[in-house]
What does this fold into?
Amino acid sequence: MGFLKVCKPAFLFTQKQNKMNSDKNIAVRNSEFNTAGVITLAIRLVVGWTYFSALWRRLVLADKLDPESAGYIGEKFNHFLPNALGIQPLIEYMVTHPDVLWWNMVIFTVVEGIVGLFIIFGLFTRLMSIGVFGLAMGILLGSGWIGTTCLDEWQIGILGIATGFVLFLSGGGHFSADNYLMKKRPNLADKKWFSWLGSGIFPLPVKKLKRVALIGSLSIFAISLYTNQHFHGGLWGTLHNKSVSPKIEISHPRINDNKLSFEVYRVEGVDVYGSFLIGVELRDSQGQSLMKLNGEQLASLNESQIQNEYVTEVKPGKHSLIIPLGARATISLPFGDLIEVDGEEYSLTLTDISGKQWTANVPQD
It folds into this structure.
């Protein structure tokens, strides 16, 4: 009995000491994550504004969700289509279904606004950082190939992925709404769900956290290298930039019922303005010109001669036929009695105002 009396206080003392050490460790870790959040504050604010400003630009400064407006965001989305990585079928479905596209653009804009605003204030920081990661991944896969002078969209996408991951690990820190809520309601800090979705101590042991940070960082680095090579040839081979000069693909050219028809699809070039088509010429096998239209004649085409497939439309301009990036359309040109169809194969040549030309053989039906 005397032995038990001696041991009991010693046991209680050990328990108390262990609790004190545990509380001390928790306090130290909490301080570390608060500091980490302070260090990443600039990243949080800038990334938050990057996404919130999308909603601000589209709804407050201008109405870019109006399908009839010149700056409709759905058309920009259409620009991503030709060289998107892995998500082309999804983009094509939306740009061929304008109602679906509009709803997705509205949802996308609202999500960007909420994610950006919450990140700025540091509210549910870790959950919102997953939103940043997802939005950035969409930008990277959809438009990582676009950028006239620099690798603009690729840089935005890959840096968004990296910063989203960093904010997920760090949380909001001292200057965040999450921290304010934990001070007002101390029990939140003990809730595992809040640690995953908000801020505070990352809910994994230090050893596992290091593993997550290393594997995540190396994975993002691998995505960076792969997409840089895929979109721009940034690791080996020849560097390329598909945003510098226009490229038009010609398909399904045919002559039928005294009418020349062909499909044009602009797959490269600057996204902020179109390719300006100033010449369409049909030649026979001897090179003799059988039909030739200049820019003014192409500018006078009517709507019935242009059948667009996507929301971004090929349309007559003031002095040429304008073909925006990502636009696909079938063009029909009557030639009357200018040529006599005799079974030979013809060649079709399109000329851009830049001087670039594209040629396709025209079989006869």
